[in-house]
Amino acid sequence: MDRTRAAVFGLRVGHAKAGDVWKAACEDIVEGLGVSRASVWVFDADHETLVCRNLFDAARREHRSGIVLARADHPDYFRAMTNNARIVASDALGHPATKGFADGYFKDSDVRSLLDFIVLHETVPVGVLCCEQSGTMREWSAADIAFLQSAAMLIGTVFLAGSTAPP
Asked: Helices 2-12 and 18-33 sit at what angle, rounded to 10 degrees?
């Protein structure tokens, strides 16, 4: 998480932007966990949508953003994230909280496994940190879970107090 820590420090001293933190975090997660993709998502003010601020695809070495997920389209996922603060889905296509993504989002990138953590600023849910494994299913280890949880905690520090928007 060295890139992420450096980007957070840069943001705090005015030498970086929130987008630099998102990119660094996604690259650190892909490298640290050896996953296919990692992404940072931000809740809107009403927690009715999640907007992708950065998605890093390891195979393409490409960053993109702008995908929007609506609670109305994925109520099981939003409920699980809100109630449990994480989703550990080795079988993302069959997991009750994530199977709603099977025909669209997962199919496009052959996502088989997903590990997500809620991002909190203080006690306020502000977003989701996600990692995905494509091609084959992956059993998430305790170390994988701890790594992503630590990253989510670090990311949460860059949000404004009481806000769902980054600085």
From this structure: 170
Tokens 């099977």, residue?
Answer: 102
pLDDT in tens, 20-70: 888 989 999 999 999 999 999 999 989 999 999 999 999 999 999 999 999
Enter the tokens of residue 29: 């997660």
- Identify the H or E element spanning 98: none
Closest CA to 40 of 8, 15, 9: 8
> Which tokens is 46 given?
């009403």
Q: How far apart are CA 129 and CA 79, in angstroms?
A: 16
DSSP 35: -
How is residue 136 written in tokens?
């084959």
Angle at CA of residue 150, ends 125 and 55, nearest 5°: 70
Task: Please give the single-letter amino acid code of residue 80.
Answer: A
Place of tokens 């420090």: 9
pLDDT in tens, 71-119: 999 999 999 998 999 999 999 999 999 999 988 888 888 999 999 999 9
CB atoms < 10 A from the CB of 165, how many?
A: 13
Residue for token pair 């860059």: 158
- CA dist., res. 11 & res. 101, Å (int): 33
In contact, 25 and 4? CB cutoff 8 Å: yes
